[in-house]
Amino acid sequence: MTTLDLSSLSARQVRDGIVAGEFSAREVAESAYARIEALEAGVHAFLQLTPELAYAAADRIDAARTSGEDLPPLAGVPAGIKDNMNLVGTRTTCASRMLADYESVYDCTAVRRLLNAGALPIGKCNMDEFAFGSSTENSAFGPTHNPWDLERVPGGSSGGSAAAVAAGMVSISLGSDTGGSIRQPGALTGTVALKPTYGRVSRYGVVAFGSSLDQIGPFGKSVDDVSLTLAAIAGRDPMDATSSAEPVPAYAEMLDRGIAGLKVGIVRDMLEMEGCGEEIRAAVDAAVETFAALGAEVGEVELPSTEHGLAAYYIIGPAEASSNLARFDGIRYGHRAEDPEDVLDLYTRSRAEGFGPETIRRIMLGTYVLSAGYYDAYYGQAQKARTRIIEDFRSAFERFDVLLTPTTPETAFRFGEKSDPFTMYLNDVYTIPVNLAGNCAVSVPTGLCAGSGMPIGLQIIGDYFAESTVLRAAAAYEEAAGFDPVPPLVRALG
Amino acid sequence: MAITESDVRHVAMLARLALTDEQVTTLAAELSGVLGHIDTLQHLDLEGVQPTAHPLAMTNSTREDVVVPGLSRAEALRNAPLSDGTAFVVPTITGGGEES
């Protein structure tokens, strides 16, 4: 067996190597599991490995090649799937005791499309319980560790998906982003991470958190890999009425067109926000100079209402979550309390026993802001603030093609460092406004922070369905920045 | 705004969560802390601003009204913690709690 180093191969190179007969899809899968074997004890990126599914998929690719068929765009590319997405033959636990034994009975559309494009399902990735969190510390099955420093968090909630890519266990992965849950772990692990426009990717089969905010998106080591993955999963789905019929362009084919004349706005008020690390500010300022050097027209813009994004989000997100999580009743699926006295006792104990502390916090917060007497003051006011944020973006995109901010105000932090819930919530201050407005944004690494030694992420924000512009800007910047996405831990494997 | 323990107990009942006394105490403090941060919204003048429930300007999205196969009964019951093979089993909901 040849052991391939997936860290040094892009998704595109994996497929091309299989097409050219340099290696087989089965060897790719073997390499993924060998890397997992070497690093998973320290990283804990996965909640479940699915070698039977992955090898079956690999054998189908190898057989197709042998019989001379054209191979699909992600043929033989090893992929991780966040454990809130259903795939028949796997459990979908949402990293919760509530769903510890839940067997998927249908496929999430985005996952099905990924597999139809030839990707190999290596396993289901760890996350914060029900996607509530920014560190994976809220996983009921133990946290994921950042491959850049195992003492630090990988971000969250899609921390397992991010860490699996950063550690070279898979080439690409899927996460979900409700307030930053793809982009923030992308920034903290030095991976490229995209939240598509709301409606770009079907939400069918991803366990709902905030239904007006949630969106599935890809992680990869390069903008090209992320673009290939997006093209595979995007598009209208009859099973999700909010999925858009907007045509899906060949994103990856448009990356090399350059950014001469692209209008780039640096969001000055977000950059100057209290709590943003000096080195992060400096990295974004340097990125702006890079964009100018690449021929972009750089200017400044303010998004004054986004100052209220965090507050609006911590009303709307929990309100939607508390409604969505009302389905866990101990009857149809999930944890059921022993010997209930009556149906109310069954509901209340099943839920209290099955949900972890942050999930209970969000449900309580959401139920409170929706309760009689508080609805207008909180939920109504947050919905209006949301309108203001949308208007801010709309006027910014009248002048600019893309906007630049840091992805996060700081780099990866240590376990247990943020014990106060709101301190943790502040990590998503730059990503949340994009979910509220529903447009798209990608996080791309700028380099390592001298202080922490951890990766820094640049957020490139685009208008609705402007993924091709955002990815083209990210690709141009990526090439200029020359970030090496392989952590020392992985490098040491040789 | 400070949330009292009695507020927490009321909301926990609305949310169908059986909390321990310790959880009630902790949550009263934590929720008060979070609400202290989000209360800033109440001071914003948003008079006359249209609320947004959904970020996309999509109008009604409909499909042809055709019958397609859904989950089978076996699939629907597969994850039920308690079922008799044909239905979910629940405690008696109506009446005085007597087995009927």
Identify the CATH architecture of chain A: Alpha-Beta Complex
Beta strands of chain A, count:
11
Distance between the amino and carboxyl termini of chain A: 17 Å
SS-derived structural category of chain B: mainly alpha
Give the CA-CA distance, first to last residue of chain B: 48 Å
- Could you name the CATH homologous superfamily of chain A? Amidase signature (AS) domain
Taking the sheet with the most strands of chain B, its summary is: none
Q: Tally the helices of chain B.
A: 3
Radius of gyration of chain B: 23 Å
Low-confidence parts of chain B: none
Contiguous uncertain segments of 5+ residues of chain A: none
Percentage beta strand of chain B:
under 5%
Greatest interface and its residue counts?
Answer: A-B, 71 and 54 residues
Q: What is the name of the CATH class of chain A?
A: Alpha Beta
Main sheet specs of chain A: 11 strands, mixed
Got a strand count of chain B? 0
Fold topology:
The complex is a heterodimer of chains A (494) and B (100).
Chain A: H1 11-19, H2 25-43, E1 46-49, H3 51-66, E2 78-82, H4 109-116, E3 120-125, H5 159-166, E4 172-176, H6 183-189, E5 192-195, E6 216-220, H7 223-233, E7 263-267, H8 268-271, H9 278-293, E8 297-301, H10 309-324, H11 343-354, H12 357-370, H13 375-399, E9 402-406, H14 421-425, H15 432-437, E10 440-448, E11 455-462, H16 467-481, H17 488-491
Parallel strand pairs in A: 2-3, 2-4, 7-8, 7-9
Antiparallel strand pairs in A: 1-3, 4-6, 5-6, 5-10, 9-11, 10-11
Helix pairs in contact in A: 2-3, 10-12, 10-13
Chain B: H1 5-14, H2 21-38, H3 73-77
